[in-house]
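I'll show a typical protein example:
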Amino acid sequence: MLPELPYGLTVSWSLAYQPQWDETPQAYVDAGVVGVGRSRRLARAEDTQRGFKAYLGVQHWDPSRWNLPGEARAVFFLSLFRDNRTLALRTYPTIPAALAALYEAWNALA
């Protein structure tokens, strides 16, 4: 279950978002929702009063496509913007972890 939104922050979820997969980003790849080596937005968060927006999504990374060592994997990502400037782009193992980071970043702007 997702936490309650802070006042002033709105989150619009994509039809591709599947709450039952909040702990398993690989499920999006397995179901064909996100392609190998690709990413897909699952939500957009916004607070127009603060000039803040964020995108939450799922990303598949295959280092072999770049001749790098390591196993292919899927993760959730969070990208943060203020006044159209990038603040951060980070990856997270779960949707709740990404949402906690989103709320923390939003609160830091207060």
